[in-house]
Amino acid sequence: MPTQLPHAEAPVTGEIVVPGSKSETNRALVLAALADGPSVLRGALKSRDSDLMVAALGALGVSIRQSGDGLRVAPPVRFKGAANIDCGLAGTVMRFVPPVAILADGPSSFTGDPHASERPMGPLLDGLRQLGALVRGDRLPFRISPPAQYHATASIDSSASSQFVSGLLLIGARLPEGLTVRHTGGRLPSRPHIEMTTQMLRERGVSVAQPDDTTWRVAPGRIAATDTLIEPDLTNASVFLAAAAVTGGTVTVPAWPRRSLQPGALFLDIVERMGADVDRKADSATVSGGAALRGIDVDLSAASELTPVVAALGALAEGTTTISGVAHIRGHETDRLAALETELRRIGVEASQTADGLRIVGGCDLRPAVLHAYADHRMVHLAALLALRVNGIEIDDIGAVSKTMPDFPAAWAGLIG
Ligand SMILES: O=C(O)C1=C[C@@H](OP(=O)(O)O)[C@@H](O)[C@H](O)C1
Ligand SMILES: C=C(OP(=O)(O)O)C(=O)O
């Protein structure tokens, strides 16, 4: 049954506390599993992607339980091979857990949602083969047997996803001779996510060198157990801030970090360029809409997660918005370029794919429709933003938001009023 999305009868105004970052939560879980003792994570995300990560690490022998206001993660003496690890549609699970599985005492098998087998995996699995693992399959489902002897270098083409590099780097310190990862392909997307990986490793005492733009060297050694506070998810926060921009309202997100490697942090600059007012405080961010938004040219290579929300803003702005640098999002939860083109056209937006992005003509006459989510949380966010201005828009599967924010429908309804 499609769900009607709220229309804004008045400017959207309020404050919204968003849950923890998916990217940080799932990295912190993996690093805690690899650490030299028990760790505690506070502010961790609770959603389908983090549940899948908890279950995956549990299957490898990691103990993870709620303790007070945090998650206590205790690594096993040795990881055990897992009969079945369900990756769902989570990129962080399918790309970060297989490297951990090569440290186990036996083989592990990986499965996922039907569409998960369309997501690129080949370069990561090749990287694991270069480290000595035996891997059967090149996409989900696949099976991994740990190496008899570990090698210390992997050269892979990571242009389809930064997560291949991140996944390998996460285990580097635990290999007998450490690990050198080289990216050999074209443009590497989502570089801030790789920096998030290296920063989180360094925070845990791991030495990571980057001799050049496409090479990372992780020294062998211990990964220190930590007590970590996870930042709010700034990409999910952007959807709420965008609601202010498209309705002339004012929305504040508290606990916005002063400095963050989350790509969602870049949203503030983007929405400002489109004409909204942005107030960056030491511990919050506020976006206010006012005059009509204007279309912009924007390279989202560093922050491709933001493409659906920027596409929604472009559709509701005046003039043309051209998003570039995101060819690889054809391999995200769904082919996002095709999905965005199709769904925007369904309500009357002139949208067309380019070689590496989208061209969106704002100011078209828009009509309501039932939009499709393609199991993609961020396609629901697109529909929710469009519905604020186009009365009657519905979404076929609002449950897709459970991937990173199960509470999105209630939080959205609460804010829109
Ligand atoms: O490492 C991460 O946490 C992520 C990296 C990015 O993946 P890609 O490089 O595949 O875009 C991003 O889009 C994804 O949502 C999360
Ligand atoms: C691309 C995304 O997710 P994943 O971690 O599954 O790659 C996303 O959340 O936009």
Automatic annotation (TrEMBL):
Enzyme class: transferase
Keywords of this entry: Amino-acid biosynthesis, Aromatic amino acid biosynthesis, Cytoplasm, Transferase
Amino-acid positions noted as binding 3-phosphoshikimate in the UniProt annotation, renumbered to this chain: 22-23, 27, 161-163, 190, 305, 332
Pfam families linked to this entry: EPSP_synthase (PF00275)
Biological process (GO), any one: amino acid biosynthetic process
Entries under InterPro entries matching the protein: Enolpyruvate_Tfrase_dom, Enolpyruvate_Tfrase_sf, EPSP_synthase, EPSP_synthase_CS, RNA3'P_cycl/enolpyr_Trfase_a/b
Enolpyruvate transferase domain span: 9-410
Record: residues binding phosphoenolpyruvate: 22, 91, 119, 163, 336, 378, 403
GO cellular component: cytoplasm
Superkingdom of this protein's organism: Bacteria
Active site, UniProt feature: 305
Pathway given in the UniProt record: Metabolic intermediate biosynthesis; chorismate biosynthesis; chorismate from D-erythrose 4-phosphate and phosphoenolpyruvate: step 6/7
Main subcellular location of this protein, as a coarse class: cytoplasm
Family: Belongs to the EPSP synthase family.
Protein name per the record: 3-phosphoshikimate 1-carboxyvinyltransferase
